[in-house]
Write a structure and sequence with these properties.
alpha/beta, four-stranded antiparallel β-sheet, 18 helices
Amino acid sequence: MPDHRRTVPRTDAVLADPRVDAAVRTLGRDVVKDVVREVQQRVRTGEAPAEDVVGLVLAGLPAAGTTLRRVLNATGAVLHTNLGRAQLSDAAVEAVVAAAGATDVEMDLATGRRARRGRGTMAALRAAVPAAGDVHVVNNGAAALALVATALAAGKEIVVSRGELVEIGDGFRLPDLLESTGARLREVGTTNRTSLADYRAVIGERTGFVLKVHPSNFVVTGFTAGVEAAELAELGVPVVVDIGSGLLTPDPLLPREPDAQSVLTAGADLVTASGDKLLGGPQAGLLLGDAELVERLRRHPLARALRVDKLTLAALEATLRSVGNPTVGAVHADVDDLRRRCTAVADTLSGKGIDARPEPSVAVVGGGGAPGVELPSWVVSLPPQLVEPLRLGEPAVVGRVEGGRTLLDLRCVPPESDDAVVAAVLALT
């Protein structure tokens, strides 16, 4: 029996190869050395020939300097929280790259003096929502609401309907978030019905503000009643509306989804929203409304702890200034086009002997946006056992199992990636 241990190349010799050395500069020495050791062990056991070590090392290295993997979202949920919600537009990605080096994020290049952080992004956000007197951006939607509660209601009461005390992702509950700021919740109404009189009965000297929360991840139907921002504005105290999904202006396809422009026009003093949902931008918390209140929030000490970095500012500005993005495109995708794409993919796969067929289906907005809205769609239907290996492939294709079949909805898959979906399936057969 040959002693394969004698053929194992030395670690320093492998690392000295120019291709491996280039990977070290990108991925880091420790990451590359771990892969080298794994391949060396395969040589010792006779699983791999010594002459293939460098090639096997290169093949075993991650594609980038992060453990995050590129995924094709074929789930049928446009804003899939576990897949990072909104996919950035090409313009936003280019903006992030441009901002990656030294930037004028807090400097006026004309004077060489300090300038307001992210002023271009704030200008773009104000232009997108003309009803807002001023705007501010923090690191996510929950942070925006926490900042409002801390600045306006610490030691005071937040009046909120019992039917709007929602639970958001990963078990986080809105009441817990608000009470952690030092505010006290004053619940009014019932789970399914709240009236203006319920609010009016508890408004007093201890009221910090009235909060209206859009139930963005569930729908209550039947014997229900609520109070809109226009009516709440009559109460004589600040009205804060958490619209959740980040829709800035009305969308005819989502008539029940509140938008910042309409809510502010109706009389709300402040609106909070997320940037990585229906807006289609990076994770961010948007604060829009009365200029005096926004400035009060911006100057609060907590705002420093919640501020966003230059990359988020760049991506958000590009999202606001550009026309369209992957989220908008996916929500408004043409059903006939989806049918043609799914048919083409299924025909290609069935021509290779794979049980694949196009089928009509239903997609959703997801990510805490437009609950109850169904988007007519199409899918490529495959055998159920393919769902897991497709997730583990390269690229990872994430679908869903429904009715005993693996379903791949191409709504959120770029058309230029259809061939990658085909290749991913074929690689498993």
